[in-house]
């Protein structure tokens, strides 16, 4: 089954404790990206990757890091999480021609 | 950068009525305009999209129109059904589909 898998789905952590949200896709997509969803703000792009070893900033990259060492994986790293990073996070992948395929989301709470 | 505005934020209609959601964008470099539906607790899923060389596209009860001159595009849902109740997001993207700018969302409630 074609899918984008995120882990963890739910996480409560404390300020400053480094965490990683993993994202994996099995569709051989070249393009992958991360979004955060906050009430009244829609989805905002954090980072994207057009291919392996190629990443670039989206609209709200501050406080986040990504890496793309393999085509199927695109982890999101929060080196020192803060409460304003409490949000619902979505990973998405695409052939690079339009349609985004989203993961199920990861709800992060930073205390 | 691009700015996408979406209206209304909430929309309530009777089953069988039509619903229209409108979006405007600011960057003339945008030429791909998808619409996503997000049911409660679920991931966003593409329902229809339109590219800048097309003015209108239909898929059964759903249609999207695009006015590039005025920089606005709209989602039209006819004969609404309770299962259409969800949050709908518009988005805009440039020709190379690298950046996506989403509207703030419209919560559609279809009353039986």
If you had to describe this structure to a student in words, what would you say it looks like?
The complex is a heterodimer of chains A (111) and B (112). Chain A is mainly beta and 111 residues long. Chain A has no helices and eleven strands. Chain A has strands at residues 4-7, 10-13, 19-25, 31-38, 42-51, 54-57, 65-66, 76-78, 87-94, 101-102, 106-110. In chain A, the strands form two sheets. In chain A, strands 2, 4, 5, 6, 9, 10 and 11 form a seven-stranded mixed beta sheet that branches. A four-stranded antiparallel beta sheet of chain A has the order 1-3-8-7, with no helix packed on it. Chain A is globular, with a radius of gyration of 13 Å. Chain B is built from no helices and eleven strands. The relative contact order of chain B is 0.34. Chain B is globular. The chains are: A mainly beta (111), B mainly beta (112). Chains A and B meet through strand 4 and strand 5 of A and strand 4, strand 5, strand 9 and strand 10 of B.
Question: Which characteristics define this entry?
Answer:
heterodimer; A: 111 residues; mainly beta; 7-stranded mixed beta sheet; 4-stranded antiparallel beta sheet; 0% helix; 51% strand; B: 112 residues; 6-stranded mixed beta sheet; 5-stranded antiparallel beta sheet; 56% strand; globular
The major β-sheet of chain B equals: 6 strands, mixed
Task: Name the chain pair whose interface involves the most residues.
Answer: A-B, 25 and 26 residues
Q: Please state the overall shape of chain B, judged from the principal axes of the Cα atoms.
A: globular
* Count of helical stretches of chain B: 0
* Number of DSSP strand runs of chain B: 11
Low-confidence stretches of chain B: none
Report the biggest beta sheet of chain A as strand number plus sense, adding barrel if it closes.
7 strands, mixed
């Amino acid at each position: 089954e074609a899918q984008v898998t995120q882990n963890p789905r739910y996480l409560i952590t404390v300020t400053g404790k480094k965490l990683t949200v993993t994202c994996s896709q099995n569709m051989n997509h070249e393009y992958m990206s991360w979004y955060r969803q906050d009430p009244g703000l829609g989805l905002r792009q954090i980072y994207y990757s057009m291919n392996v070893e190629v990443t670039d900033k989206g609209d709200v990259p501050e406080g986040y890091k990504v890496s793309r060492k393999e085509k199927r994986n695109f982890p999101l790293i929060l080196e020192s999480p803060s409460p304003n990073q409490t949000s619902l996070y979505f990973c998405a992948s695409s052939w690079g021609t339009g349609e985004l395929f989203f993961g199920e989301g990861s709800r992060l709470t930073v205390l | 950068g691009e700015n996408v505005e979406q209206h209304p934020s909430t929309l309530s209609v009777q089953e069988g009525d039509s619903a229209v959601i409108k979006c405007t964008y600011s960057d003339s470099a945008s030429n791909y305009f998808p619409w996503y539906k997000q049911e409660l607790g679920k991931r966003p899923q593409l329902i229809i999209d339109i590219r800048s060389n097309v003015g209108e596209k239909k898929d059964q009860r759903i249609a999207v129109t695009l006015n590039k001159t005025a920089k606005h595009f709209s989602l039209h849902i006819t004969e609404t059904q309770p299962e259409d109740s969800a949050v709908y997001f518009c988005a805009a993207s440039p020709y190379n589909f690298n950046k996506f700018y989403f509207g703030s969302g419209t919560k559609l409630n279809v009353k039986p």
